[in-house]
Amino acid sequence: MVGGGVIQQLLRRKLQSQSVATPVLSWFSSKKATEDVGSAGVRAFALVGAGITGLLSFSTVASADEAEHGLECPNYPWPHDGILSSYDHASIRRGHQVYQQVCASCHSMSLISYRDLVGVAYTEEEAKAMAAEIEVVDGPNDEGEMFTRPGKLSDRLPEPYSNESAARFANGGAYPPDLSLITKARHNGQNYVFALLTGYRDPPAGISIRDGLHYNPYFPGGAIAMPKMLNDEAVEYEDGTPATEAQMGKDVVSFLSWAAEPEMEERKLMGFKWIFLLSLALLQAAYYRRLKWSVLKSRKLVLDVVN
Amino acid sequence: MSFAVYSFRLTFAMADEEVVDPKKYLEESCKPKCVKPLLEYQACVKRIQGDDSGHKHCTGQYFDYWHCIDKCVSCTKAVYETEMKKGEAGGDYIVLSLLHVVVSRDV
Lengths: 307, 107
What we know:
heterodimer; A: mainly alpha; Cytochrome Bc1 Complex, Chain D, domain 2; two-stranded antiparallel sheet; 4 strands; B: mainly alpha; Helix Hairpins; 4 helices; 2 strands; 42% helix; elongated; disordered N terminus; mitochondrion (chain B); transport (chain B)
């Protein structure tokens, strides 16, 4: 705090040189000399004052960051987390059911086709039956007209809105994002989606959310347009599992994880196989290198001193 | 991950109507471990009670409290067990857990 010491010295000298009664008047009279000691002291004070107000305003801005980033979501031990762990396919099936009954009215999953579900969550007949329930607009017929037909395995999952504007209009300006890649599109996606879906709570004291939005601490900013969708017993599972909020959250996140990373199981198998084989190859390579270099590394140099 | 019914087997066999949400249950049981941030939050609520400016809020303390609860819930041993039971079939048990650790919960 050299500045503070300097300022004190300046002030002391100023008081000594001028009468105590009229320090202000004498400061004014000596204003002509801009490099004068007194005005330098006042300027320093002004600068320090400006700095303090700057710091204070920074602190209030910084505290707003917490809600801006959202509450950090915890990490849950997903069954498919391990190095050789597959998806829980029963959970994927239940999750698809939850998606269909709860989420599909607003969220599209336009990158997933019915045929992708075959062998993962449904048999071919089941998937065909599910696809046949929807109506799909198909290309021009011989008369040049578009027509509708029941869905096939090759069709994509149906979209609730025809375009983004329609989606926004129906949801108060907010766009329900496509969920095909959502667990990869958000930081720590799987845990984030689960925490978000099951984390609707009353807002903290002092926070009020406007009509049409809902409080969710995990959502950046805290005010999300989506209301709480997962409630106990909202869905009746085909396999009889009790549909608690947490169960539905877990199942839907398993489904969304699969949708975003359907290749995960094959990738893990491939990874395990190739890491193992390459480790063997590394051992072989190390042995071979040391074998070849042993000639040089074991040579001896003899110095013959000739007198 | 265990979010099938977290309830003791006895009660589940009897009551197939009433389901207990495991996450809520675990959050309740984690409350005693997070008393300190809860008290901080409540103190903050009291402090800003008279405020009319609308600028004061307790988001920080709220986040601290819920972060504590979340951490506790995600680390509970119960989270490492998964079971799926068919209520109607009355007795079919399918155990689906890759980390099937049968431990007693410590709360």
